[in-house]
Amino acid sequence: MTEFWLISAPGEKTCQQTWDKMMAATTRTNNLSVNHKFSIPDLKVGTLDVLVGLSDELAKLDSFVESVVKKVAQYMADVLEDSRDKVQENLLANGVDLITYITRFQWDMAKYPIKQSLKNISEIISKQVTQIDNDLKARASAYNNLKGNLQNLERKNAGSLLTRSLADIVRKENFVLDSEYLITLLVVVPKTSYPDWQKTYETLAEMVVPRSSNLLFEDNDSGLFGVTLFRKAIDDFKHKARENKFTVRDFQYNEEEMKADKEEMTRLSTDKKKQFGPLVRWLKVNFSEAFIAWIHIKALRVFVESVLRYGLPVNFQAMLLQPNKKTMKKLREVLNDLYKHLDSSAAAIMDVSALPARAKPRQHRRGLLIRQL
């Protein structure tokens, strides 16, 4: 799991000087982090009241978009099932891996025109991601219902002989059919009780047809026997069978029902395969869309909060730092020393969840704006 810090530092005479200062303090001499410029275009500032209100709205939108990104990613893993090792290769942004996308971030002018106000841009993103969220719920519900119905049928054809469907085990010739007096029952007998079954089945009730017991199927624990008797003896036979720990399965041979069950399983399996490809493609496309929208929200938040913290004219440098895991504490100390001269109107260091969530915002000390990705 890769961690990034998205930092906004107040501008020196030029933004390049701010960048050089950060590089000198964190990378060139002590290898505390790998740094990338984070390009944010000249957005419309608007009024102070709008910026203050937008700051809170963007924080909520950030959390919402993050949740949608995670839901799409998680559902991709669910859909891929046994191919979960392929999840990462399907979770791309603009056709590249996520780290490449954020380290080379460029504002998408076509999707989010910078001539629009900041509020309008945030509303565009909100509507876009809300639609993705709604579509995901609808598609997931339909696919899950299909998958659930198929799994229920598959479960019926698996497991113990005491519970599984017998339709794919028995054959027409195993039964006495269309007889007014005779009926064939199916009995599950533990393997350890085979000798007892052979000795006693003919005496479990009156009117059991002698030598009618046939072993039809076995699993690891039990065997399925067919036995023929007169219909009037069914209740007595079932009662005595229970006493001897033999289980009579409730089953009536019906070719039409058995054929319908097999056709239903074939249909569900075919439908699942048909839906799988388009669903994975939709998830790939919309994960990319949601992730891109999320990083644009990050950029909007950095812009708005930098203007609120550092004032006008707009003069700050946004940077993406990939900390060395072993030196994070040292990196924070270096950043604090580098910008401790900022007065009380400047930003507090903040941790904000992303890629994936780490923590809720919490205030540490006076200093520059840091957002943890």
From TrEMBL:
List, alphabetically, the GO terms of the cellular component aspect: lysosomal membrane; vacuolar proton-transporting V-type ATPase, V1 domain
Q: Which GO terms describe its molecular function?
A: proton-transporting ATPase activity, rotational mechanism
Write the record's keywords in alphabetical order, separated by commas: Acetylation, Hydrogen ion transport, Ion transport, Transport
Question: Can you tell which superkingdom this protein's organism belongs to?
Answer: Eukaryota
Q: Which residues form a coiled coil?
A: none
Stored Pfam families: V-ATPase_C
Subunit structure and binding partners: V-ATPase is a heteromultimeric enzyme made up of two complexes: the ATP-hydrolytic V1 complex and the proton translocation V0 complex. The V1 complex consists of three catalytic AB heterodimers that form a heterohexamer, three peripheral stalks each consisting of EG heterodimers, one central rotor including subunits D and F, and the regulatory subunits C and H. The proton translocation complex V0 consists of the proton transport subunit a, a ring of proteolipid subunits c9c'', rotary subunit d, subunits e and f, and two accessory subunits.
> What's the stated role of this polypeptide?
Subunit of the V1 complex of vacuolar(H+)-ATPase (V-ATPase), a multisubunit enzyme composed of a peripheral complex (V1) that hydrolyzes ATP and a membrane integral complex (V0) that translocates protons. V-ATPase is responsible for acidifying and maintaining the pH of intracellular compartments and in some cell types, is targeted to the plasma membrane, where it is responsible for acidifying the extracellular environment. Subunit C is necessary for the assembly of the catalytic sector of the enzyme and is likely to have a specific function in its catalytic activity.
Q: Which family does it belong to?
A: Belongs to the V-ATPase C subunit family.
* Protein name, UniProt field: V-type proton ATPase subunit C
Q: Which organism is it from?
A: Oryzias melastigma
